[in-house]
Amino acid sequence: MNTVVIVGFPGAGKSTIGKRLADELSMTFIDLDLYIEEKYHTAIPLLFQRYGESAFRTLESAALEEVITKENAIIAVGGGTPCFNDNMTKINANAFSIYLQLTEEQIIDHLLHSKKKRPLTKHLSEPELREYVHKTLPIREPFYLQAQMTCSLENSYLCALLIQKKLKL
pLDDT tens, 18-52? Predict the structure, then answer.
């Protein structure tokens, strides 16, 4: 199994790190959100707006099943992907999973300074964003912690070495 799936809260850096890792390891990079946008010719926020979160999560799970079996790929999934439709089990059955773990403050800082607007947080003020992260992270983290490896900013170099060993590169 030479597929890696990166999970974590929105703003954790899954796409940024995934792209770098894929380049370094000469692997294909797939951003699940971009894959969905290309497939449906619609931006994720518009899919949320038009169809609601439940319908989006169904589309997202179907897209995950389409890409999860790709060989030699690094896949960054949306922050909610592992938390719905038994997706974390699917991820672990088909790929090596990595949780990018950040503190609440690190996540808030990343989201406040991100150019990318996320559908569930784009209309929130800073205090509302803090409340959202404070309430949502403890709900999502049990899913993220099912990943086969947890990497924080403090142990990112060690994680990179372990990933290379796992993939036997």
Answer: 998 898 889 999 999 999 999 999 998 899 889 99
CATH code of the domain covering residue 162: 3.40.50.300
- Containing domain of residue 71, as a range? 3-166
Round to whole Å and give the CA distance between 157 and 169.
Answer: 16
SS in 3 state form for the chain?
A: CCEEEEECCCCCCHHHHHHHHHHHHCCEEEEHHHHHHHHHCCCHHHHHHHHHHHHHHHHHHHHHHHHCCCCCEEEECCCCHHHCCCHHHHHHHHCEEEEEECCHHHHHHHHHHCCCCCCCCCCCCHHHHHHHHHHHHHHHHHHHCCCCEEEEHHHHHHHHHHHHHHCCC
Report residue 61 as tokens. 């799970």
| pTM to 2 decimal places | 0.90
Q: pLDDT digit string (tens) for 135-153?
A: 999 999 999 999 999 988 6
| Domain tally, the chain | 1
